[in-house]
Amino acid sequence: MIQRAINDLDLQQWSAEQDGQLLGVLTWQASHGYCDYLWLCPNPQQEDLAIRALLHHVRFHSARWRTLSLDYPYGQGQSAMLEAGFHPHHTLIWMQANENHDAGEVE
Q: Is 3 buried (19+), middle (13-18) or exposed (0-12) by CB count in 10 A?
């Protein structure tokens, strides 16, 4: 808490669960720039359900006049994100690990 005050860091966090199972967590981070940031970590087995629930929630519980930015692997959870009212803005894959290569190699 003290570090957040010193660094002027404003965060809110939510989690979603179903039948006692954690579906995922989402962190909203305020910014002084163009947009606020979202950090999403869904349960891979329930990815779409977690995305729909968490993104829908944050859209209706954050400042509507602020743009929300979410970095997430391209092609994953797209239909759930669209259903939650989000749309692609930039689609760029910076790096991708190939499990067929040795751990020290980067594609």
A: exposed
Query: Right CATH number for 2-83 from 3.40.50.300, 3.40.50.970, 3.40.50.11540, 3.40.630.30?
Result: 3.40.630.30
Can you read off the two tokens belonging to residue 25? 């967590």
**Global pTM value:** 0.71
The pair of three-digit structure tokens given for residue 18, joined into one six-digit string: 């179903």
Q: Tell me the pLDDT tens digit for each residue of 53-104.
A: 999 998 887 666 778 888 888 778 989 999 988 888 766 566 666 666 555 5
